[in-house]
UniProtKB/TrEMBL annotation:
Subcellular location: Nucleus
Segments of skewed composition (Basic and acidic residues): 334-343
SUPFAM superfamilies linked: Bet v1-like (SSF55961)
InterPro entries in the cross-refs: START-like_dom_sf, START_lipid-bd_dom, START_lipid_transfer
Protein name (record): START domain-containing protein
Amino acid sequence: MSALLDLLMGVFRQPTLGGVALELASLAAPLWLAVLVGLLIGWAWRPRWALAVVGDTPPETPALPPPPSCRNNEPAAVAPRAVMAAAAPKEEDEGLAVGTGDLMHLRRLVEEKDGGPSWIHMMEKTLPTMRYQAWRRDPQDGPPQYRSSTIFEDASPEVVRDFFWDDEFRIKNTWDDMLLQHEMLEECTKTGTMVLRWVRKFPFFCSDREYIIGRRIWASGKTYYCVTKGVPRPSVPRRNKPRRVDLYYSSWCIRPVESRNGDGSMTACEVLLFHHEDMGIPWEIAKLGVRQGMWGCVKRIEPGLRAYQIAKTAGEPLSKYAAMAHVNTKVDPDELITEDDKTGTSSTNNAEAEKPKHWTGNIHKALLIGGAVALACTFDRGLLTKAVIFGTARRFAGPGRR
């Protein structure tokens, strides 16, 4: 404290007002720099030692042998345009990366009967041929979860299904400019189940992320339940860069809806998306980033879809990913009716409006981080520096800090 007082007294001993202002500016500059450094610390990856301390490292589970109808590391043959597998028996389901339980979970999410917290309305946007709404909820023991409804005019569910499944077109068209690499690790030509490896781009101060994901589609009439989730594959070695994301869930329900032109035609298509993942970024910072960047990402989808429609109309052949979207499991709508539907159990997930937060609510956090780094950089370059910086990292490494 005495050192800080000596600095301030030295400032006010300057003979001129300009000298005082110059000295104050030189004193404040490290503090502002410290705040920026603190923000970068918040965006940085959780260190490995923190994961070990809190026991957050996911256990490696033994890889399950794929069913006889599935192949590893072989190119997928282009499937016929209308291939439906009957509902797979549970015995076959057990060997697949995505099973019937995942279908029922997605269906409960669609019907808002999964028993989770209430959804908070975040955003509503409208374009001439697209409508978009988004919600968020915060479970007690997991990352923020997002739900969105996107309605495309003049689009069939089949084309929209292929569009979201087609990783080759994602990169070719760059509508999903975060996807850097994709690789099909496993495929099941009987059910359409796939295991893929993705590498996605993150900001320059973060490592890129690696995902090992399982995919599968169920068809119920003109409605498609498309499940994508992270799956364990110890056979794919982990690396420091890109950093692997284990907790990942991103699934769609794609279905026809009435067009807004008012003639009652079912020429529009709704995509209900449910998404959450643990990227290793503190959840409050991740929520801020999602909120700021959500619409910028979403509005790129619609031009990409229209380009995809034009390409398919022109006769462009199916990619191996889009071909696998045509191999899906047919399910009778009656099989999706649960006991909750029969008893008329109401949903507990009624949406509520998001409460606006005043910008001053996060000042104390920025000051805490920036001040800690400022003290570490200003008064001590030894043990105090290390203690403060690692203490700040430990503070943000703890899971569930919200």
